[in-house]
Amino acid sequence: MAESNMSSMQQQAYHYIKQKIATCQYAPNQMISESQLREELGFSRTPVREAVGRLVQEGLLTVFPKRGIVVSGISLGDVYKIFEVRILLEPYVLRKCHDRIDLGRMRYYQSIFHNFDPEQTEVEESLFGLDDGFHELMMQSLDNQYLLELYARIQTQNIRLRIMSGSNIQYRIRDTMEEHAKIADACLAGDWEAAAQAVEYHLYRSRDSALAILLGSHGMVELK
User: Which residues pair with residue 221 across a beta bridge?
Assistant: First the structure.
């Protein structure tokens, strides 16, 4: 029972710290300490240390002996690598796995994208959920656990990029909705090659937008 409780605390610590990293509450390149984490969580050393070890393996933390724990930054190279994975996987899913896509759900998103009103309130908040849900809809049709795990691994970095560029996202909202609408239109027309090309175009645009924003962010991104 004690071992089970320890595993549960380790999982809680892992998800707590990862969420803080994803939402930039622990900012890129911020120094944190094990004692700080133990105090915030109210846990003993072992589950916190194990959680930190997992996040080190995922590249989200770096431990410096006798100095502390540093939240990994996001370099321009990281942005290229994150989008390289997405550009490889998402068009592939549309070309090869489209038979498993929920077209009823796709129609739901198509309607939202075509009727999107940039003047509606709280649009930035709802946009994030729409974007996540739409791309998740496509990726759910992928029946390859190894590729899904790879995609899941970059999701925390995707969220961090979004938070870091949030104040500059307004100019991309309309373009993003139009790009998503074209993807949905092609899917519902059964033109999967056009859908794959549309999602590829969308991802390249998103990548270039993220790079442009991060180039103007000092202390948040490493120029390498």
Answer: 74
Distance CA 171, CA 167 (A): 10
What burial letters (b/e) apply to 65-74, b meaning 16+ CB within 10 Å? eeeebbbbbb
* Same domain (yes/no): 114, 211: yes
* Strand 61-64 versus strand 68-71 pairing type: antiparallel
Task: State the average pLDDT over residues 38-50.
Answer: 93
Within this chain, do residues 132 and 187 fall inside the same structural domain, yes or no? yes
46 and 129 in a single domain? The answer is no
> pTM for the full model?
0.78
> What is the per-residue pLDDT for 144?
95
Same structural domain for residues 26 and 93? no
- Which range of residues forms the domain containing residue 102? 75-222
Domains of the chain: total: 2
